[in-house]
Design brief:
Elements lengths: L3 E2 L1 H15 L6 E4 L3 E5 L3 E7 L8 E6 L2 E7 L20 E9 L10 E5 L2 E7 L13
Parallel strand pairs: 2-7
Antiparallel strand pairs: 1-7, 3-4, 4-9, 5-6, 6-7, 8-9
């Protein structure tokens, strides 16, 4: 498979920047959402679980052989809302920011995505010359 995760490196970098730049009492934390990458004959399919995230709060970018997905799960209220008394809160307000390295075998112009039932699915079609084929022995 030619999709590679930069997670080992970005995890340490993110941790450093979170410690340095995150407000001490912030309820927003960074997270890598559960995901899976599968390969079919003509396409790689990346599925990312984003429950509770609005479609408008999902951003997908492709640049320099990297696919980046950013998403934010927002609160249902603002911290300074008058008349709001939070009795209990067990929700995570997370900011997902994940990058995957993508090989030259992907047809970048045909990348597509859809968001259904809290799962973001990104299809990365293979270029025609990158598709596998059987070679007969003569």
């Amino acid at each position: 498979m030619y999709l590679t995760s930069l997670e080992p490196i970005t995890k340490h970098i993110d941790s450093f920047f979170d410690q340095v730049f995150t407000e001490p009492n912030s309820t927003l934390k960074r997270s890598n959402a559960p995901n899976e990458v599968i390969e079919r004959d003509n396409v790689y399919i990346l599925s990312i679980e984003l429950p509770g995230v609005s479609k408008e709060d999902i951003h997908i970018d492709f640049e320099d052989k990297s696919l980046r997905v950013r998403a934010t799960k927002k609160k249902l209220y603002e911290d300074d809302d008058k008349g709001v008394n939070v009795i209990a809160n067990y929700r995570d307000y997370t900011q997902i920011d994940r990058v995957w390295g993508v090989s030259d075998s992907i047809d970048v112009k045909k990348i597509s995505s859809e968001y259904t039932d809290g799962v973001l699915t990104i299809k990365l079609p293979k270029k025609a010359e990158a598709k596998s084929r059987k070679i007969s022995v003569s």
